Amino acid sequence: MANIIPVLSEEQVGKIPSRAEQKVYKALAEQLPNDCLVIHSLEFIKQTSRFKSHGDREADFVIFSPHFGVLVVEVKGGGIEYDKSINQWYSIDRNNTKHEIKNPVRQAKDAKYEIRSHLQQRLGNKKLLLAHAVMFPDIENATPMVGPDMPINIIGANRSLVNLKKWVTDVFEYWAGEQSIHDPLGESGIKVAEQIYGKQVSIGPSLRAAIEEEIQKQIELTNQQKNILRQLKKRKEAVIEGGAGTGKTVLALDQAQTLAGQGLNVLLLCYNQKLGNALKIKSQHIDNLYSMSFHEFCSWRIRQVESNTERDLIEESRSSYPGEDLYDVLMY
Predict the structure, then answer these.
(1) Domain coordinates of the chain in residue numbers?
(2) What angle do CA 172, 15, 5 make, to 5 degrees?
(3) Which residues of 233-253 are buried (b: 16+ CB within 10 A; e: fewer)?
(4) Cis peptide upstream of residue 6 (ω within 30 degrees of 0)
(5) Mean pLDDT of 307-325
(6) Predicted local distance difference test score (pLDDT) of residue 216
(7) Residue 284: which pLDDT band, with cuts at 50, 70 and 90?
């Protein structure tokens, strides 16, 4: 059984929008050996020159074989019609209604060269066997589709699904004969392809984002906290206790804004530097309200004293408390 990405349950396979792709998915998963990697619905952005816009692309199935190379298979369901005179392809549904579709050969060719550039960035200038093919699971005879750009060797039909492993091998061997000597993809190439197209990524939120979110929560006022503030209006002093995140900072900020709005000069101190900076930003446009961290306040007072009296309080503290910490002792 092939290593297929994504791995889908029977129910999930039934939800693939294209019934034709459902058939091919099951056949590839069941019939190809487990050393093959199959990517279903591989999406990528086609790289162009800087003067042209990039474009979204999708390959229905990409088969990575360690013994051969890369095979891109474009799948088209329903009946098929191609009008060479206007270069237009059609899919024909069960009601015999025609629907315009993209050229499957060109889609497969574009995808295989883009995939080659992806692999060469990791594998170097390895000569990879690149192959493309088209699969029409709902038609019995694909011979009428044969043309210079689409030999019978790269066309699959309903009967090809019976022995899909042989069909895939035949397509690879056809292209191997058409191309110069190539290097097999090998197990290392399979691992690289799986890393590029099947990697699993898990990135948790950064500590910074978590802290900023918590700080924002702390600065949002709830209705319950507003009720508490109403009860504090007649009190000159109050002690608010609670664990982290219980809203103490929110109450302090709102009360400070209220007092500043009454014309009082208000100093709002916070011991935590990061939270102090956040409060400063919140209150920077509020008249009479000065927000800062405790140590920032200490530094400001020390500079003020030195400016007014030429006393260096820090040096005096170092003489009185030699070897003590600046923030834990000297600034106090």
Answers:
(1) 3-197, 207-330
(2) 40
(3) eeeeeeeeeeeeeebebbbbb
(4) yes
(5) 81
(6) 67
(7) confident
Task: Give the pLDDT of residue 166.
Answer: 95
The DSSP 8-state label assigned to residue 148 in this structure reads T
- Using CA of residue 303, residue 309, residue 314, residue 317, what is the dihedral sign? negative
Instruction: Give the pLDDT confidence score for residue 51 in this predicted structure.
Output: 46
Mean pLDDT in residue range 27-52:
79
Expressed in angstroms, the distance from the first to the final Cα of the chain is 73
C-beta of residue 196 within 8 angstroms of C-beta of residue 122:
yes
pTM to 2 decimal places:
0.59
Based on its alpha-carbon atoms, the radius of gyration of the chain, rounded to whole angstroms, reads: 35
pLDDT over 80 (residue 165): yes
CA distances from 215 to 188, 218, 273, 296, 317 (A): 47, 5, 12, 19, 34
The Cα 252–Cα 249 span in angstroms is 5
- The pLDDT value recorded for residue 251 is 79
Q: Which of 50, 171, 56 is CA-nearest to residue 114? A: 56
Report the number of secondary-structure helices (H) and strands (E) in the chain. Answer: 11, 11
Indicate the angle between helix axes 248-261 and 223-232, nearest 10 degrees: 50
How do beta strands 129-136 and 155-157 pair? parallel
User: CA-CA distance, 173 to 169, in Å (whole number)?
Assistant: 6
CB-CB contact of 222 with 247 (8 Å): yes
